[in-house]
Hints:
Layout: E1 4-9, H1 18-32, E2 36-41, H2 52-58, H3 67-84, E3 88-94, H4 102-111, E4 118-121, E5 124-127, E6 133-139, H5 153-162, E7 167-173, H6 180-199
Bound molecules: flavin mononucleotide (FMN).
Binding site for FMN: 11, 95-98
Catalytic activity: 2 a quinone + NADH + H(+) = 2 a 1,4-benzosemiquinone + NAD(+); N,N-dimethyl-1,4-phenylenediamine + anthranilate + 2 NAD(+) = 2-(4-dimethylaminophenyl)diazenylbenzoate + 2 NADH + 2 H(+)
Cofactor: FMN
Amino acid sequence: MTTRTLVITSSILGENGQSKALAEHFTAQAQGRGVEVTRRDLAADELPHLALAELGSWQVSEEERSPEQRELAARSDSLIAELRDHDVVVLAVPMYNFGIPSQLKAWFDRVMRAGVTFRYTENGPQGLVEGKRAVILAARGGQYAGTEMDTQTPHLKLMLGMIGIKEVDTVFAEGLAMGEGKRDAALKEARQAIDGLVERL
Ligand SMILES: Cc1cc2nc3c(=O)[nH]c(=O)nc-3n(C[C@H](O)[C@H](O)[C@H](O)COP(=O)(O)O)c2cc1C
């Protein structure tokens, strides 16, 4: 059986986006090995902020939804179905102002849905998206891996873990704004790390 991989990009820098270039490297390597890849570009195909009407649509049973609520709920339903339909999710993540892009947060706001992708039990929350792995490709101007200034990967792992995705590999491309030499070396190292991960898909 081939591994189905969902590659999610969120760089706002278009063709100059480094995380997107790493995602493309991942995709080319994976496809070269016969892995099926679906791309979702959250910057090109933007989701709005999650707001009350959409949240409310999830709380109404399918039969009782108004036409507008059906349309709003379909947004989250289809993103969750897409996630469930893949074995591996690759998140190519730029650091913008010490956080993940709001476009990516808007995606998490649709796929983290109580009663659907996780539920609360007597023993705490239980993830309902099972049997999946994730890869984070983290691109930043500075260098923060392993320090408290890495404000992204702990947050991403918390959100993924909440829905049941606990096996997460991270590739860092850091120091991208710290001179050409540092940038080129970081990107080369990141591409090599990606090659190693793709071999294990
Ligand atoms: C709006 C904006 C905010 C940024 N904020 C940070 C930051 O807080 N820390 C950092 O290390 N780099 C920051 N950078 C640099 C980016 O992390 C770096 O350019 C990285 O390559 C972005 O990923 P991308 O090329 O895939 O878009 C920022 C860049 C932009 C455009």
